[in-house]
Every structure is written in structure tokens, then in C-alpha cells.
Amino acid sequence: MIDLQTLGKQAKDSAYQLGLLETAKKNELLNQMADALEKRTDDILIANTLDLNQAEENKIRDVMKDRLRLTPERIQEMANGMRQVAQLPDPIGNVDKMWKNTDGLLIGQQRVPLGVIGIIYESRPNVTTDAASLCFKSGNAVILRGGKEAFHSNQQLVQILQDALLEAQLAPYAIQFVDDTSHETAKALMQLTDYLDVLIPRGGAGLIRRVKQTATVPVIETGTGNNHVYVDRHAQLDMAIPIIINAKAQRPSVCNAMETLLIHHEVAPFFLPKIEEALIANQIEIHADERAMDYLKTALPATEADWSTEYLDYILAIKVVDSLEEAIVHINKYNTKHSEAIITDNYGASQKFLKEVDAAAVYVNASTRFTDGYVFGFGAEIGISTQKIHARGPMGLHELTSIKYIVYGNGQIRH
Amino acid sequence: MIDLQTLGKQAKDSAYQLGLLETAKKNELLNQMADALEKRTDDILIANTLDLNQAEENKIRDVMKDRLRLTPERIQEMANGMRQVAQLPDPIGNVDKMWKNTDGLLIGQQRVPLGVIGIIYESRPNVTTDAASLCFKSGNAVILRGGKEAFHSNQQLVQILQDALLEAQLAPYAIQFVDDTSHETAKALMQLTDYLDVLIPRGGAGLIRRVKQTATVPVIETGTGNNHVYVDRHAQLDMAIPIIINAKAQRPSVCNAMETLLIHHEVAPFFLPKIEEALIANQIEIHADERAMDYLKTALPATEADWSTEYLDYILAIKVVDSLEEAIVHINKYNTKHSEAIITDNYGASQKFLKEVDAAAVYVNASTRFTDGYVFGFGAEIGISTQKIHARGPMGLHELTSIKYIVYGNGQIRH
């Protein structure tokens, strides 16, 4: 088994160095790492071929193989992603608030890095450079543990980033890779309490559950989104249709896509046939409850399991509800606290939905697809937190920081 | 074993109700709970006597017995503490920031409760009402698990608070007590991932370590403080003496007291005799390194263990260092990331110390004793976080909240 203690110690030492680097230096290093990725495109492609061959042997699905595949263009995108992170404002060192207390102490809340961040992730190799650059920019050392499917690609990518840091002789172990994909090592990483300040899992529901049950280091859960759109009795129906199609069909495989549509019974009779037409035109399969079935031609009957399924596919569950209250109860029972939307023109309904629905992002008259760090204006994101501790919703650079109280006195003692 | 699943479920349901209560209603209930405490003073004293008798049998130290002892005055203080929390501003519902993104969405960060908070704590029964009132005011349900020494007192206190809630028929299980002090139950509570949003241990280093190693629910570590004061070569020595005496002797048993004094070698020869005199006048025993011993009359030789000991007692370790850099290295190696201070009149030294020392609170020319929620202006505190995730330093009502993004649209879809 790999020596995680050594990795942890190296990360901690590097984190301290990195935490003290000025922004200009961090940006310079990010740009150097981006250049190195482009320069060594061939090395990356060779490693990626190993992964693709293995995927072939293991008869991995085409869609997964596509996620895995790197091309010179995709490598350039990864490099450009790092350059963009270099251009984002650096949160570290900023003082959010500063006030004078009754003793005359000047107390400031200054942003500092978290320290050492672990990331456990699946499949796509671009997560490697995305996560590495966001952690680096926010002054954190990172220990990356990718999935076995992209093992060779990830290993090569981290090697290149590390070479660039070694060359600059600055925080050389700020970016490290766990080159062991065994479950034992994953478990040991989840319990590396002496070194990891936080662990962020990025992947499917199974991974998130495993991490949640096993990890003794602090975890920020990300990702799964069993999201709803509720069409209220006071909805503008011509606004509802494009929002529903967008939330479901624009990119069904992502966590902010809609999975269940709830419809007030008063609008169901005339709205359901219309939305069915639009959904069919977008190749969406419908799983409907009994009441909705009355107004639908092509739907399959929904079962209890449908309400808690995150399809991530061209499938939509539909349910008719008697009231806004019933919609809210259904959502709070089945959702994964990610993104929820109401379509309404009623003021009271909008306020009630915003207040009572428990989710990271709650929308009035907009698609759930907007839950995203770029869209929210954070410049980037390392994931979308569905828990309440530390960060909730899209996590940008700010969410990768903590605070330190800096206190300026002139001889104060406590009475 | 107690049925923690039921407790958890009840807490979750109550948390949802409590999260929707208006501030005025929460305040009214806090005041009613305070009244109930006073009204049932006799019941509390009877329960407390059971604990005190048990302490007597177990030959508990007098200082511990004093912490355990309740009197009508102390019960009134607890009630008044609850009334003070009622008067604090309610963070829930406030929108910290709101901005318009490029799609025209109005995006707001609204404060919401964390949900269900677990508190594992030791000895003092006033923690019961303090923690309960802070969690309640911030809209969180709480599950309290106190130490066995104060079992009867804690149980009775929670019973009274719960009776008041039951009478009002509002969120009756918002405050619950684990009436089982076994280690198995404590462990099960630390792993109650389905219901606990966060667990806050309050107690000694042993408890904190056990929670950190065992808990799979999110934890906010609190408390232990192996704190330093560094007297720089540019220190105003007449300012240093009162700060050192205050940091060490004003209340040695608390986590923000100083444990090790570091002194620049240039000032050691004339400063050490002076500070020894002041320390002796305050009944402080000195454990000094070899270099410091040269200038001290009464000190015992320090061993390696002294540098990492949180005495919480009338003992101080003293070490002479060659430079500011050496002081910072020593502090970052041995401290528990709580509170650190430099005494200096040099601008560069102050800035370097503030930047490079890793701790929740870093002071220039002030006593470490100020790290406290009341002193910082938060009105109250539930503990002092020594970790970086979610909250760092004194935790007030704000630190018991999370956020929800509320998003106002008018038909936006994602492109």
C-alpha cells in the first residue's frame, strides 16, 4: 500500500509554503503549469491511450469512453482552464470584516487557505487539472485520488504539474497523486485525520455514500441532484414549457438537471398534453403517476422508486399535486437538497416556496440548470455542495478558504 | 441502548418546524423556557444533589464538584443567559449578499439553520442551557449528550425546557437529551449520519480526540489551547509584563490562557528576572529551557513534553529563542491553532507574525485571553473552533447557520 503518511506530511509542508506565496507568484506558477501541459501533450496522449485500451478491454460504455478520451484540443482546454484560474481574484489575505471591540481591539476576519484538501473523483481526467488549479490558487495543497479508469492519464497529468513546481522549487508537493486505486487506500485517505483538512468527493451517489459512511476527516458532500420543477396553479404556462425543457433536456447527465416535474391539479388537464408534446420532441421518456396518466398518451406508470431516482438520463417523472403545500412536502421528502424551482406568478406562492423548500438553490421562474459556480459569478467551481456545513451550493475559490482572526492591540488585558 | 434513530427523526422534524418560526416566536419561547427554569429551581436542585452525592462517593476533586454545583443564583444566571440569547439579533433569514448575474437572475445568499446539531460535553450543567438556547435561537434542533457526572442535573434541565416547548406545542423535540452515558451510545451518536448535520464536542483533549477519530458526521472541533506569547526583541517590556500575567494567571483553567512564553534572546537577560518576579507573585510555577534557566531563580527544567502540554493550571513553560523566525516555527510546531500573541513595537515583526502563525486568533500587543465570542462582539459563544472547516475561532449564532441560494428569475433558461 502507498505511504499516505508521507504524502500527507509532504502536503502539509507544501501547504504552509503555498499559503504564504504572493498572488503574483501563484499565478506565474499556474501559467507555467498550463504551458507544461501543452508542451507535453504527447506524453499525456500516450498515457491516455493506455486508459482507453483498458476501457476497450473492459467493454466500457461509449459515453464513458468519450469522457475519458483526451485530444490535443481537450488538453489545450485544460491548460486554458488553468490560465483562467490564474486570472481570478485571489481570496487569500483579504479581510472580510474588521471592527473595533469595546476593549479597543481592532479585530479582522482574514481569509486563509484550508490547508490540505483531498479530492476523490471518478472518470474524467479534466477534474485533475481543474481541482489542482483551484486548490493551488486558493493556497491549498491537494492530494488527488482519481478513478482507476483514468489512472494513467491522471498520473501523467499530475507528474507534469509537479515537475513544473519542482523546477520552480516552490511548494513542490502542493499537488500530489495517490497512485493506488485500491479500496483500502481510499479508506485510509478518508481517515487521514492527521493531515487532511477536508475531503471532497466528486462522483456518483455510490461514491458519495461510501465517503460519508467511512470518512473521519471533514467531508464536503457534492453532487447528487434529484431536482424538481413545480408548476403552480398561477404559473405562466408559456414560461413553464421552455424552463421545463431546459431543466430536463439541455444536459440530462448533470446534477442540476430536473428529474421530477410536479404539476398543480388545476392546470394539469390543459398543461400536461402540451408539455408531453414538447418532451416527446426532445426524446424524453415520461414516468407518470396515476392522475397525470389521465392526460398523457405515451407515459409509463411511475412507481415509488421513480420519486427518489436521479435518472441523469432522458427520463422525467411527473406527478400531479393538489396544492403548493403538497408539492413542498414531496420535494422535501425526496430531494437531495440540490436545486428546486417553482413556476408561478403568485407572490405568496413564490415566497412560501423560497422559504420552505430545503435545498442549496431555490428558484422562482428559472431553470434549475443555473446552479453552477460560473453562472453564479464565482469564476469557477470545484463542485456543488449539498450539505450545510462549511459551504452550500456551488463552491468557488472562496469556499476553499477559512478565516483567521487578526487582532491589533496596544497593551490590552482582559478584566 | 437508547433509540437514537427515534431521537434523530424527532429532531429532524422539529428542526424543520423551528427553522420556519419567526424571530418573535422563538424569543417568546426562550423567555418561557427561562421562566420555567426559575419556577422549577427546586426540581433542579434535587437532581443536582443526586449528582453531588455521586461525586462525593466517587471522591471527585473539589474544583470539579464546584463546577457541578448548582445554587438558586446559578440557576437564575442560566435563566438570564437564555433571556440574553433571546435579545440577540436573529441571523436566520438575513440575506448576506444579493447580486444580479449576467442572465439577469437575482441571486441571494440567505442564512438558514444547519438543521440538527449534536453536542457532546463534559461536567458543567450550564452548558446544557447555553447550548440549547443558542441552537434554538439559530433555528437548530439540538441533541445534547452530557457527561455522567452531571447526568441528573442535565436530564432535569432538558426536561424543563422540553416541557415548556410541549406546552407551547411548537417544535417540542427541538431540544433533546441522550439519557444514556455509555460509550456505545456516544459512538452511535457520532455516527448518526442520517440525522445529525454537525457534532460539536465541548470538553478536554481526550474527548476531542475520541470524537475526531470516531465521528463520521461532520464535526467542529473546539477548545484545546496550547497558546504562546512571544516577547520580541522590540517589545515594550512594561507592556509585556501585564499581558503575560493576564494571559497566564487571570484564569489558567480556560482554553485561551497562555501555556508557553517565548522570549527573544536579546531581551532575556533583563526581562526574565522581572517576569519571574511577577509570575511568582501570581503563584505561577515556571518550567524553563536551559538558556532561560540562566536568568531564573526558581524555575524547574523543562522537558520536551512541556512544549506540547496544555497545563490549564498555574504553570508556565518558558523558552528563549534566537529570532522571530524561530518563535514562529516553534509555535506552528507545538500549538493547537487556538490563540497566539506577539509583543513588539516593530512593524515588520507584527506583520510577519500575523501572517505566518497558524491559529484561529493571532494578536499583536494584547492578551490571548480575548479569544471569546462575547469579547469579539458576537453576544455569545457555543465554543471556540480550532479547525478550519465551517467556522474558526469563537462561534456565535452566525456560525450555527448555513446558507441557501434564493434565485429570482423571470423565465431564464440556460444556454
Summarize this entry quickly:
Chain A is α/β, with parallel strands linked by helices and 415 residues long.
Explained architecture:
Chains A, B: It is found in: Cytoplasm. Chains A, B: Pathway: Amino-acid biosynthesis; L-proline biosynthesis; L-glutamate 5-semialdehyde from L-glutamate: step 2/2. Chains A, B: Pfam families: Aldedh (PF00171). Chains A, B: Residues 9-281, 315-404 form the Aldehyde dehydrogenase domain. Two copies of one chain form a homodimer. By secondary structure, chain A is of the alpha/beta class. Chain A is built from 16 helices and 16 strands. Chain A has a seven-stranded parallel β-sheet. In chain A, strands 5-4-3-6 form a four-stranded parallel β-sheet, sandwiched between helices. In chain A, β4, α7 and β5 (175-177) form a beta-alpha-beta unit. In chain A, α5 (72-87) packs parallel to α6 (126-137) and α10 runs parallel beside α11. Chain A starts with a helix and ends with a strand. The model of chain A has no long low-confidence stretch (mean pLDDT 95). Chains A and B meet through α9, α10, α15, β13 and β16 of A and α9, α10, α15, β13 and β16 of B.
